[in-house]
Structure formats: structure tokens, C-alpha cells
Amino acid sequence: MKSILKKCISILTCMACALLLFSSNTIYSEAKTSKAKNIVVVLDPGHDNTHLGCHYEGFEEGLANLYIAYYCKQELEKYNGVTVYMTRYGFDCPYGANPDSKASCLTSRVNYAKSVNADVLVSLHNDYDPDLDASQNGSKVIVPNANYKPAIAAKGTALGQSILGQLTTTGLTVNNWKYCPNGTGIVTRDSESATYPDGSAKDYYALINQAKTAGFTAVIVEHAFCTNTSDRVNHLSTPEQYQQLGIADATGIANYYGLKLK
Ligand SMILES: [Zn+2]
Could you read off the pLDDT of 11-54 as tens digits, one per residue? Predict the structure, then answer.
């Protein structure tokens, strides 16, 4: 009886060992696979010399966004497993500098991201309150709505939260945008008339809805308000401040993808 028990225990031990070996092999191969996956991030410095963004009290959005993008790229490239491209590298519009070409410029930016197999398109902007409402300050991230391709919305929301969390460490507050107030700083905005092929409301912003149609996630990061004195003076006035914002964006992106520093 005792020897039968002993035999049973040894068989069980062998089975447990085999199971452990199998599962550790599985974990190892999964880690290997995810390590091999390179993430392609396309940064989009919003606006350019032709398609001007907001400007107020000496602040020029197209220039600020370009600074932030360069600093973000520089920081992201400190990580393994990521390739970073930008939709523009200079002040001029690389997609046909015609003042009437705003829509085709946006489409070209999405097409560029698609051409380099972007995993994500992160559009970098700053905001302006048309009523100069001083209560409008801080950061928000505009993410895809839940319609048509919900997985893209889920990814955009998680990435947006990761970026926003880093931006608040620079001293910026979470913006409760008066056009889409929800208190979280993670907002979606629907088109009032345009729809996706399934009949659901399209995302309002062309960059987001065109990327969703093409099959990848785009988010719009609105770092701060140039019409808010504290935001402008403390976050949008010097290269060092733009660097701080670019590093925050990069850290948020890297954390979302679980990237490791080189
Ligand atoms: Zn803008």
C-alpha cells in the first residue's frame, strides 16, 4: 500500500514538473514574441506655416507643437522597441502649402502614418478659448468614440489616460472642456451629421475618424491653454517647458506600451 502511495506521489511530482516546464516555456516564448514587436509611433505636430493654429500674446501654436514633438521623439528614442516618425519636421506644410488645403493636409497626415504602418498617431496641440475664458486651463486628450471599431476606442482611452497622467505631473491641471465636459480630461466628440459605414456617429475630428477607418488609433493631445495666463507663462513660454511636455507625452506613450529604457 505504502509503495503504491509512493509511486502515485512520484508520478504526480513528474507531472507537476512537466507542467511547470511547459508553462515556463510558454511564458518565455510569449515574452520573446512581445519583445520582437516593434511599435511605430507617428507624432503629428499640429498645424504649420500655412494652416495656422492658435496664436495669442506672442504664443504660436504651430511652433510650440513642433518643439514638443521633437522633444517627445528624442525622449521616446531612449526606449527599446519603438520607431518614431513625425508628420512634419519643419515649419512649412509638407502636403501642399495651400491655405484652402486644410482638409487634404489632415488626410495626408493620416495617409503618411498609414504608409509607415503606424501603431498609433499622436497629434500634438495646444488650445485657445475663443471667449478668453480664464477657467479653461490644463490638459485633455481627445480620443476615438466607441462607435464602429470599439477596440480602437479602448486603446485610445487607455493611451490618453497614460499621457494625461504624465502631463499632470508637470503641474498642469485636468481640463474640463466646456464643449464636452465630463471632468476626466479624456473626451470624445461626435460629428453631428457624418456617420461610419455601420450608421453610427463619426468622430468629429478628421484625424481620428480617418485613422479609425484606416484601422489604427489616433489621439489629439491638447496640452494647455494659451489664453490662460498661468498655462502660457508656466508651460508654453520656453524650450525647457516644451521639453517637459514632450517628455511627459513620451513617458505616457512608453508606459502604455510597456517599453523599457535602452
Ligand atoms: Zn491645434
Answer: 444 344 333 333 444 333 334 444 558 999 999 999 999 999 99
Q: Give the span between the Cα atoms of 170 and 75, in whole angstroms.
A: 16
User: What is the grid cell recorded at 7?
Assistant: 509511486
Q: What is the Cα–Cα distance from 71 to 123, expressed in whole angstroms?
A: 14
Q: How far is the CA of 221 from the centre of ligand 1 (A)?
A: 9
CA atoms within 13 A on the CB side of 166: 22
Enumerate the domain spans of the chain: 1-35, 38-257
Query: Is the whole model's pTM more than 0.70, yes or no?
Result: yes
Q: Given this structure, which CATH class describes domain 38-257? A: alpha beta
CA 58–ligand 1 middle distance (angstroms):
16
- d(CA 54, ligand 1 centre) in Å: 6
Q: Output the CA 253–ligand 1 centroid distance in Å.
A: 20
Q: What tens digit of pLDDT does each residue of 185-228 get? A: 999 999 999 999 999 999 999 999 999 999 999 999 999 999 99
Q: Are 46 and 123 in contact (CB under 8 A)?
A: yes
Q: How far is the CA of 214 from the centre of ligand 1 (A)?
A: 22
Quote the CA–CA distance of 225 and 163 in Å, as a whole number.
17
